[in-house]
Amino acid sequence: MNTNQIQIFDTTLRDGEQVPGCKLDTQQKLVIARQLELLGVDVIEAGFPVSSPGDFHSVQEIGRTVVEPVVCALSRAVMNDIETAAASLKTARRPRIHTGIGTSDSHIQYKLRTTPDKIIERAVAAVKYAKSFVEDVEFYAEDAGRTGNEFLARVIQAVVDAGATVLNIPDTTGYCLPQEYMEKIAFLRDNVNGIHKCTISTHCHNDLGLATANSIAGAQGGARQIECTINGIGERAGNTSLEEVVMIMRQHESLGMYTNINSKLLLETSHLVSESMGMVVQPNKAIVGDNAFAHSSGIHQDGVIKRRDTYEIIDPAEVGVDESKIVLTARSGRAALAYRLKNLGHDVTKVQLDELYKHFVVVADRQKEVGDNDLEELMGSVAV
Ligand code: KIV
Ligand code: ZN
């Protein structure tokens, strides 16, 4: 792997599926896993096998099906979880166990009711046990975002020494600021011996709307894997959105980072996940929302009709969107009206356009959007 390639670890089928009411069955998961492979993700987190027989079966079937991506199964730092994860991964060509434990004061004191030293012991034991089944073991330090850097470095040093291959530094509660998260990753990179043999991973939640920014900041701090989901789905406010981080790296070449993702498949993958889960994508969602390439105000429409990049930084075709939309509303101007009429085969003169526009705004004030049928009616009813 080139050092500037960012591995895309997709957790749509594990953390993404933790969305209340959006459960997928094995068949649906297989369809999504095949699509993720086509999309070019490097790692598919297929599930949490100890959680239910159905999830165990899904991980097994995904392992049997996909060829290229690493197939990863989640486990707590609990021996039975690890054994179950290992058993579910027997079918996988490239298996990875993802094990870990909470490291913040809040998790140690209130959730796990133990001591920092015991956390390190359990982390090391989990990694060593997982290593007895598979070579590729990822360790997560849950709530690393709220864990002091000195203690976090002690935990990470211990699991590096125990043989972890990937080090996941989750901002589980979506608390960090980008600069803070970047510094956390950089601190580990600079203070843990032997860390350069491992891949550092980001795993950011979106409670403050910062998951994408934090993931990119983490990569700037030295992470080389980003954990994310299609459409940013996941617990509470969700996880980092795959399509956003991928397109940020593409749009900002100065970051010097790239991924293996075929961006032309982003929209169809988004639709597949949204439909399978019955989870609507917000219209203004970056990259894949219905309005991501729609222009409705006259000022913007005039610019975009003259030259697309006046108001669009991404060519819609690059993410699998057919074309930008010029939506006719009461805020639209003559340029947009003429453009849409032309698309319907009506080439009108300036005088005709002025006349049509007077009638158009009346219709537009009455309804949210003026469609093709309304335009045909307008052409029929106005003497031009
Ligand atoms: O958010 C989180 O900390 C997680 C871990 C289980 C990786 O999802
Ligand atoms: Zn998570």
TrEMBL record:
Keyword Transferase: yes
Residue runs in coiled coils: none
Pathway terms, separated by semicolons: Amino-acid biosynthesis; L-leucine biosynthesis; L-leucine from 3-methyl-2-oxobutanoate: step 1/4
Keyword presence, Amino-acid biosynthesis: yes
Domain Pyruvate carboxyltransferase: 6-267
EC number from the UniProt entry: 2.3.3.13
Keywords associated with the record: Acyltransferase, Amino-acid biosynthesis, Branched-chain amino acid biosynthesis, Leucine biosynthesis, Manganese, Transferase
Domain of life: Bacteria
GO molecular function, one term: 2-isopropylmalate synthase activity
Family: Belongs to the alpha-IPM synthase/homocitrate synthase family. LeuA type 1 subfamily.
PANTHER family hit by this protein: 2-ISOPROPYLMALATE SYNTHASE 1, CHLOROPLASTIC-RELATED, HOMOCITRATE SYNTHASE-RELATED
Protein name according to UniProt: 2-isopropylmalate synthase
Annotated source species: Neolewinella antarctica
Taxonomic lineage: Bacteria, Pseudomonadati, Bacteroidota, Saprospiria, Saprospirales
